[in-house]
Recover the amino acids of this structure.
């Protein structure tokens, strides 16, 4: 059992697979590219941890328990926060004032 067994994992992998090439081709410095890619991989890492926590709770406590639900909710919230982190990193690095859009327009207009 792995990421393929999780219902949200294909969307996470598709999201990362779609944005990594975009991060690589953007005309930004290597550190910014690395931050953008790291924020994407953080989503996969947190999703794996979320899955591990959920599977462990289901194994240890197959019956419903309020604390088990809270633990699972917290793990899911961590996945959501990893998406917010990714959004914040990308927004900061691609903000119009940083000059990325001007450099990108310049590259696209040159033959």
């Amino acid at each position: 059992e792995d990421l393929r067994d999780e219902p949200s994992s294909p969307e996470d992998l598709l999201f990362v697979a779609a944005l990594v090439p975009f991060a690589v081709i953007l005309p930004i410095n290597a550190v910014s590219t690395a931050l953008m890619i790291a924020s994407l991989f953080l989503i996969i890492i947190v999703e794996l941890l979320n899955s591990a926590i959920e599977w462990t709770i289901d194994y240890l406590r197959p019956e419903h328990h309020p604390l088990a639900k809270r633990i699972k909710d917290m793990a899911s919230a961590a996945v959501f926060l990893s998406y917010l982190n990714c959004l914040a990193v990308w927004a900061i690095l691609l903000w119009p004032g940083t000059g990325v859009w001007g450099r990108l327009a310049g590259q696209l207009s040159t033959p």
User: Anything to note?
Assistant: Residues 30-60 form the longest helix (31 residues). The helical segments are 9-25, 30-60, 66-94, 100-109. The mean pLDDT is 86.
